[in-house]
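Pair request: fold both.
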Amino acid sequence: GPLSRAARLLGALPAAPARDAALIGLLDRLTGLRTPAAAQPRRLPATGRAVAFFAGCASRELLPGPQRRLLDLLSASGIDVTIPDRQTCCGALATHTGRPERAHAQQSVNVAALSVEAGGAGALLVEAAGCALELSGYPAPIAGAVTDVTVYLGDMPLPPLREVPLRVAYHDPCHARHGRGIVDEPRGLLHRIPGLEVLEPDEAEVCCGSGGAYALLHPELSEDMGLRKAGFMAQTGAELVLTSNPGCLGQISDALARIAPDLPVLPLTDLVWYAALSVTPIK
C-alpha cells in the first residue's frame, strides 16, 4: 500500500528499540552526528499540564514507532498523557469513501470514549492532521478540545534540543493548512531546533494527492499530484522531507521513491524527538 515504503523507512516492525535505532541511524547519517544507542530525551519536571491523546487508526496500526516516540517526547516534556480506552477510527476515511453510517457509528463510539477525558484535560491531542479535522466537527467538548500536535508542541517547553545541521522541507497536509488554518505553527516548531534550515517548496499550498481516500478513488490523478509535489520537494535541495499526516507521508514517500529515492520522508515529530535525544548517556 502507499504507506509501505514509509513504514519500512521508519522501521515499523515488532521491536521498539530496533525502530528507534533505524531512525537514529538514518538521521545520524544525514546530519553527521553520533548518537549513543541508549540515548533518551532529557526529561523536564512534571508541569501539571495534562492532555488526552487520540491514537487514530493509520498512525497506531501502520506507524506505531512515530506515535510511541511522540508519547515519549510528551512525557519527557513533563506532560501527563491519558490515552482514553475504547476509542476507534475518527470516521474520516468512512466519510471520504461514502459510508456516512459507518462514520456516524465511529463518531458515537468516540464521543462516549473521549468526552470526559477531553473535557477534563482541556486538550485532545491529535497526531494526524486528517483526524484533527474530522474530530473538530464532533460535538462539544471534543471539538473545542482538538489540538494539532504541531500546535501543542510549539506552545510548550521542550527538553533541551541539540543542534541538528540539516536542510528540511515541510509539506503542509491540506487538512491542517486549508481545513484548520495551521501554517506557521509547524515551521515555528522546526525553527526551535538549532542548526535546522527550513526550506519552502514551490506550490506549498497544493495537495499532495493523498486527500483522505482520494488516492483510492482517483489513483491516476493522485499519482500525478504526488509526483508533482515530490518534484518540488526535491528541487528545494532539502536532505529530508517532513509532514504531519500518515496519508501525506505515504504519498510523498512513494513518489520520491521514483524520482529522488535518496530523499527520505519522516513525521515532523520524529525529528523533534531526535533533537531532544541526549548525546551523553543518561544515568
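--- second member of the pair ---
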Amino acid sequence: MRVHVADHPLVAHKLTALRDEGTDSPTFRRLADELVTLLAYEATRDVRVVPIRVRTPVGPATGVRLSSPKPLVVPILRAGLGMLEGMMRLLPTAEVGFLGMVRDETTLTATT
C-alpha cells in the first residue's frame, strides 16, 4: 500500500486543534471538514487530466480538464461519511460509492 504523509504545517495545526480534548463539537466538525479539503487536495495530486483549448478574454489558452472516467469517491461507512462533503467540494462531478466494513474486536482485522 502506498502511503503519503501530509506534513504541511497547516494540516498539522488543524489536526492538533481537532485532537485537543477542549475542542467543542462545532469546532471539531469545522476542522474535520477543513482537513478533508486539504487532504483531498493532496490525494488528487495525480488525478488524470487531458489538455484542452479554451478562450479567455485575452485570447486562446491551453488548459486541462479531468479525464474520463470521472473520479470515484468511496467513503468507508460510517466514519468516512463525514469526509464526503469536503471531497465533493473539490470534485463536484465525481461518482460516489460506499464501502461497509466491520472490525473483529479480538483480532482488530477489518472485513467487508
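Observation on the second member. The chain has a mean pLDDT of 91.
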